[in-house]
Sequence to fold (167 residues):
Amino acid sequence: PMVNLVRYADDFIITCENRETLENEIKPLVAEFMAERGLTLSEEKTVITNIRDGFDFLGFNIRKYGNEILTKPTKKAEKRFMENIRKVIKGNKGCKQESLIRMLNAKIRGWRAYYQHGATRDSFHRIDHQIFLSLWQWAKRRHSKKGERWIKDRYWHNIRGNSWTFA
Fold:
């Protein structure tokens, strides 16, 4: 049977057409190969699963839908990214909007570059909405005596037809 291996640093995936081959032939060979080098397979991280059920690898969830294999950011990766973004926003309550935008853009660009090759539309939409909510709270805290319209006009502008651009 055809067997494929994908490795990144000390993480790897082995794919095969049937579970029995993986369990009875491939896994023992890999365990032996690693033992000869003083390494062991992590029982916690070693999972044999059907690709239709999906699995997580390097921050991506990989799953087969029909005849397509889709990769998208894991929920854990989304959560970790948003925790990082919120930390930046909350830690910079007094900074200028321009400085905050620079800090956030660097993080957002990095996250986008890493995940851009997957099926990311829904994930990016969720992230965008969460960032908007965090920025809205940031702006409201800075001007607690001002109305929502004033806050919107102060921090959000119409750029290329999007009237809710934080700029």
